Amino acid sequence: DTGVSQDPRHKITKRGQNVTFRCDPISEHNRLYWYRQTLGQGPEFLTYFQNEAQLEKSRLLSDRFSAERPKGSFSTLEIQRTEQGDSAMYLCASSLARTETYFGPGTRLTVL
Amino acid sequence: KNEVEQSPQNLTAQEGEFITINCSYSVGISALHWLQQHPGGGIVSLFMLSSGKKKHGRLIATINIQEKHSSLHITASHPRDSAVYICAVNGNEKLTFGTGTRLTIIP
User: Fold this and answer.
1) Residue B86 has what pLDDT?
2) What are the residue ranges in chain B where pLDDT is below 50?
3) Contact A48/B93, CB-based, under 8 Å?
4) Is the pLDDT of residue A102 over 70?
5) Looking at chain A, which residue has its C-alpha nearest residue B100?
6) B45 CB within 8 Å of a chain A CB
7) How far is B31 from chain A (nearest CA, A)?
């Protein structure tokens, strides 16, 4: 499978714990995006990378959130001190500039 | 007001009916995407449009840049078309999404 992959697919954690998600984009794609989707809503932009550079961060991305793409390949999204409001589907997507965007299956986070 | 508005929010139709979902946007864009999301599932890209019309099987997408409007049509709808259809626009490098149209096709 050469699509976008995400790991884990589901994560249940207790409030206050840290969680980390991983995204592996399509190998030749230089752009990688993180979006968050809550129930019944469309996805919302969190951040995006061009190669290893993080070019834009949404104001939704509080200080508890950090994303990295260390070698311009896979990316990680970490949430520290999780809150119940962080419960959502976290979607990763990748693309080449101005071409079709491909989405991963998402990581569903539940904070108890 | 959202930058991307979809209508209707929910649509129920009989198998075989012609389906139209509309998307209006208020910002300048380089491209518009139509996406499909099944319950509990990931998002699949159906079309990326910057002008005119595209067709793939029973799906047709059109865009009118001047009117900032796009439509997604499904001909001869089938229960397996039941899903949430999301319109998203490429503004400044990232996608801005509508809230989706939940389509249910009854056999």
Assistant:
1) 95
2) none
3) yes
4) yes
5) A42
6) yes
7) 8
Does the beta carbon of A59 lie under 8 angstroms from any beta carbon of chain B?
Answer: no
Pair of tokens at residue B22: 């509309």
Give the mean model confidence (pLDDT) for residues A36-54: 91
> Residue A23: is it exposed, middle or buried by C-beta count within 10 angstroms (0-12/13-18/19+)?
buried
* pLDDT tens digits, one per residue of A78-100: 999 999 999 999 999 999 877 78
Instruction: Give me the phi and psi of A85, to 5 degrees please.
Output: -70, -10
Residues from chain A that touch B30, judged by Cβ atoms under 8 A, are 98
CB A108 within 8 A of CB A56: no
Q: Which of chain B's residues have a Cβ under 8 Å away from the Cβ of A103? A: 35, 42-45
pLDDT band at A41 (very low <50, low <70, confident <90, very high): confident
E-only strand ranges, chain B: 4-7, 10-14, 19-25, 31-37, 43-49, 52-56, 59-64, 69-74, 83-90, 95-97, 101-106
Specify whether the CB–CB gap between B94 and A40 falls below 8 A. no
- In whole angstroms, give the CA distance from residue A85 to residue A92: 19
